Request: fold
Amino acid sequence: MLVRSALALALMVVPAFSQDLVDGSDPEAILAIAKGYGSADLQTDDAGDPQIIGRMDGQQYAVSFYGCEGGKDCTNLQFAAVWVVDGAVTAEAVDAWNEAKRFGKAYLDEDGDPWLEMDVNLAFGVTRQNLDDTFDWWKVVVDGFIDEVVAQ
Reply:
């Protein structure tokens, strides 16, 4: 009897939990979360995949969708931001950032402008709360990168 009750309870919990998942098949749901952090628009990149262009505290960023099948059912995201600073950021500052930080990979492009990226796996879905927290982490990472690297 106890096993049957536990199984019945487990079966009731799974559908409620799975309805709260967000994955790369619903860019509009991801856009809605992005809009909670500032302005954001859903566009299509050169490969035909969804892309969100947004602003947080005045800083422009992009969320690119990867692992897509014909522009749909994408499996992961990449957050990215760039600062055009005319070589004012050194490779040493970027290296120090990468060594000290777990979130946000940084590099200098061919013009010496710093880029910051953060990859997110959406395969099999994540909860809305998890993805909202990921956007919050992106905000923390961008703010820290500005303070510790770009503004120096």
Summary: The chain is about 40% helix and 30% strand.
